[in-house]
Amino acid sequence: MAADELGEFERIRRFFAPLAGPGGLGLLDDAALVDCRAGRRLVVTADAIVAGVHYLSDDPPELVAKKLLRVNLSDLAAMGARPLHYLLTTALPAELGSAWLAGFAQGLDEDQRRFGIDLLGGDSVSTTGPAVLSLTAIGEVGAGMEVRRNGARSGDLVWVSGTIGDAFLGLSLLRGGYPGLASEHRASLIGRFRVPEPRTELGPLVSGIAHAMIDVSDGLLADLGHICETSGVAAVIELASVPLSPAARVIVAGDPDIQPRLAAGGDDYELLVAAPGGSSGAIAAMSSRLGLPLTMIGKIEAGSGVRLVDTDGRVIPCDKTGYRHF
Ligand SMILES: [Mg+2]
Hints:
By secondary structure, this protein is an alpha+beta fold. The protein has 2 domains: 8-142, CATH 3.30.1330.10; 157-309, PurM-like C-terminal domain (Phosphoribosyl-aminoimidazole Synthetase, Chain A, domain 2, Alpha-Beta Complex), CATH 3.90.650. It contains 11 helices and 10 strands.
């Protein structure tokens, strides 16, 4: 059955109402009700994705749902916030049937349990164009504990979580690149592109230390550039210290010229943190507590712009604009 044959109310009742939390009132009222705790601030972010632009129409709907949710959770983490709720608006073409919607809702359901969030409401409409999926995530942070992009200072060290460049390589593989790569490496890189891992635990934990923070969506160099611009500082990053996954290291071993591109490629959804030099011990303790690598990759200086350098300090020329979409 095509999704629009179900009608809007049936579509909401069947696929979205089961995802609603107590504040969503069963998606039966005019609006949701949210309690605000004293001494906390709500942190709100939204992202929309379009079929054929941000994902492929034949991508598995479970994975489309998870990526849509997780990119928003990553933005909350980058402010130091814990996720609480979300709103969802879908504009779907008639040819997306109930099987697609069921898969989409299942992906949301799995991630709701995993990240401890629930649906508050939204809208569900039909369109004659491509599918448009828009999600608004709401989190909370202790007032004054939020971490913005504009607080980096000269002398801060720059840290990044996890590994960088995997999503860029995953997209390259989907486009036919590196056909000889071993299947376990292929699966891990494509997985990193399709379903990012938002650092929802790290963000709130590091918020007491970080001077500035951003999540890596446009690319490590471009996003560090956003911190530098808003903070009025410069940054220098040593390429050799940018952390790579085992799969990325295999690719770089055979294609060394790709390495600077990994620092520019987007969609990593790792957290990039500028923190004072004296906090290295605390950051190392966080890393072992979370079982998540946190790597020092460079430092903040006076000036402007981001320089990528080799181990001798020579500037490596590269295109700093990440690119993300199909
Ligand atoms: Mg962001």
